[in-house]
Design goal:
107 residues
């Protein structure tokens, strides 16, 4: 008998036991947005929100309706830069991390 665990459940459990994994997910979401892959970034950010702060608390922190935040981070979401900055800021605060942005020169 094969036991299967859902992907989302695996993410939630890993984030709860490994703060560095949560930070790596936030870093990956930011990197994907900056690299022009917003669809993948939104999905990672949504999973991270579900595993950490939760959408109800995120709504309080960002002063945005929870339902709107769900839509913004859905596969077809299209958050404004202001909303995206608010979401990243709230998750950063929740995880107690900061971003260290570096520009890499390409030849």
């Amino acid at each position: 008998m094969t036991l299967l665990r859902g992907f989302k459940q695996t993410i939630v459990e890993r984030v709860k036991r490994d703060p560095d994994f949560a930070k790596a997910l936030l870093d990956e979401a930011a990197t994907l947005f900056l690299s022009g892959e917003p669809d993948a970034a939104r999905l990672i950010l949504r999973d991270l929100v579900n595993a950490t702060v939760g959408f109800e608390s995120l709504a309080e922190l960002t002063q945005k309706p929870s339902k709107s935040l769900h839509r913004m981070l859905s596969p077809k979401g299209n958050p404004s830069m202001d909303n995206l900055a608010a979401i990243f800021g709230a998750v950063q605060s929740w995880l107690k991390v900061t971003f260290d942005v570096r520009v890499i020169e390409t030849a």
